[in-house]
Amino acid sequence: MKRESLIESLVNLLLPLALIFGLVLLLGINVGQIEATQAAREPLESWLKLIVGYLAATAEIAAAVVIGLAVIRGIALYFRQIFSRHRQHIDSTEVVRLQLGRALALGLEFTVASDILQTAVAPTRQDILNLGAIVLLRTLLNYFLEREIKQVEQARFTRRENLHNSSLEEIDQSDH
User: Fold this and answer.
1) DSSP string, 41-104
2) How far is Cα 105 from Cα 66, in angstroms, rounded to an integer?
3) DSSP character string of 142-170
4) What is the pLDDT of residues 122-159, one digit of tens each?
5) CA distance 12 to 108
6) pLDDT tens track for 54-71
7) Nearest-CA neighbor of 68 among 110, 38, 9?
8) Crossing angle of helices 92-120/42-82, nearest 10°?
9) Do residues 98 and 153 touch, judged by C-beta distance below 8 A?
């Protein structure tokens, strides 16, 4: 059982890395073809760069808005739980962390989309390598963030289930 989970976690880590590395290599091969036909597409390329630049900026703004709103919401939720009259919120920081973590993951997706858009029009070999490095770092960050969110949610579910089972046992014992 433990060996299977070790192998599973190793595959979950190495598979995204291998895919990203392969993608960067494949994109590096196609760069020569893009550079050879670049002179024929100059007028269209300048318009395309302008449009894609606006789209990439929009994706960056969306990432900033998502993350900024999540931070404000997290702060408000945290203070509301601290000053709440009900002291049932044992895991108040976990709730805030989970919500902020989900928003950060979404914000990272928007920033990756922005980087892909910025590199989409007439990329140089250096642009592709930079994109590969950025996507790799953000994908790894997102992977570990998602893994932590799943672990915390599983722990919360287990705690709730244990509380529910213990309350049912107490009711059952009081009936006898």
Assistant:
1) GHHHHHHHHHHHHHHHHHHHHHHHHHHHHHHHHHHHHHHHHHS-S----TTHHHHHHHHHHHHH
2) 10
3) HHHHHHHHHHHHHHHHHHHHHHHHHHHHH
4) 777 777 877 777 777 777 777 888 888 888 888 878 87
5) 19
6) 999 999 999 999 999 999
7) 110
8) 170
9) yes
